Amino acid sequence: MRSVVAKLPAMALCVALAGLALPAAAGKLFLSGGAYEDANTDLFVNGLRKATGRDAGFTPNINSTNNCGTNWATTACPRIAVITAAKDSYATGLDAFQNDILASGSTPLKRGYYNLFQTHGFAPKFITAHVDNYAVHSSAGTPEGQANIAILNQADAVWFVGGDQAKIIRTLLTDSGTDSGLAAALRSRWNNGGGSIVIAGDSAGNHALNVKMHAAGVSYGYLYYGADLPDTPVTGWQTLGDTRDGTAALRYLENGATMKGLGFLPAGILSDTHFDSRSGRLGRLAAALRDLGVQQGFGVDENTGVVVDTAALTATVYGANKLLIVDTAAASVQTGTYYKVNGLRVSLLTPGDRYSYASKTVTSSKAAIGSAYYSSYYDSADIFAALETSKSLTRLVDQTPTTNIGTAPVPVYSSGPTYPSGSPAIKLRFTRDATTRGYYGGGRYTVDKAKVDIY
Known about the structure:
This protein is of the alpha+beta class. The chain has helices spanning about 1-5, 10-15, 40-50, 90-100, 115-120, 135, 145-155, 165-170, 180-190, 205, 220-225, 250-255, 280-290, 390-395, and strands at about 30, 80-85, 125, 155-160, 200, 210-215, 255-260, 270, 295-300, 305-310, 315-320, 325, 330-335, 340-350, 355, 360-365, 365-370, 405-410, 425-430, 435-440, 445-455.
């Protein structure tokens, strides 16, 4: 073994030690956590647009929906193919692409995808394939499918929109889980020159880029049911969830399931979305990593984007919020009636930070924290509520005590099935030890390798 390792190139050795498969092609992925703000230029311009390498040499006018020409043969703008297959139908997807949602009361105007990408300096085109027409529009043997493939073959980026991740998989994969003509064309672009196209996903579109994606459920449910997620075939896309007790049962509502994804994200990484702003998904991601045998998890928060460079083996954060990294390499599973684990390493990155997923190194854009600002600990009474995981982590590196405890109470609902009497309150212990580092600047924290136990 020593002689084999000694002959590995340095990058390949880092990848092997990190439990990652070498990528089939070197390219860039863009993972969006969902619920982005239309005017988030750090996400769309500094992150996605610059990742294409076709930056057009100008600063887009954020108020203009005519920044770029529509002729892909002549435009200087990055050409982006928009796949709305996560929507309910072709008609719904086309409407989301073409039309803005007008402002109402305190709700601001929401750009349709064409106008959204124009404001950020892209030239967008629409991919017509959806769950109600995939047999024709995802085929390499039909005029409709060939037109979609022609768009993918010219695009500098492809954007999978949010919605229902199972609909994306149903649209792009066959009943047996093999590539449709449309998916094969995208994979060919990636494998034969991945550096020439950025594959991006927002929310459900982010999930679909995993080798195998997890879906449905909540953190407490994933832990309560023991990190045991059933696999769902492509043909079962309409009930992607834990159906072992039926679709009206508690386990279907609270636990999750897995399904084959498109497989562009490296096999040693599992991505999750809406990570902390909507609800705490740390328990959900930790349990899914256990079930799928994946070592590193990327929890991308809302209004945040991450450029994953599979050549440099790095992830760089853009936008407004956070990326949480969950590393299970040194974790040990404990016996119990629900999923218990000691020794997770969890890092929290904010815009400007970078993570090497080969060496597991965090590079922060902030200054190292010296003396602690807080003298007391922070214990959360509802650790999977919105922002509670982030607060527990960031306080940990800027307080005198070295431990915070978070409690996940048994979820209580006003209707539907309920957890049995006596169900446990699950706890998370956040510990700062000699491995942990904290950084702060511009109102943002970076947390490097906090120790987390779930018990």
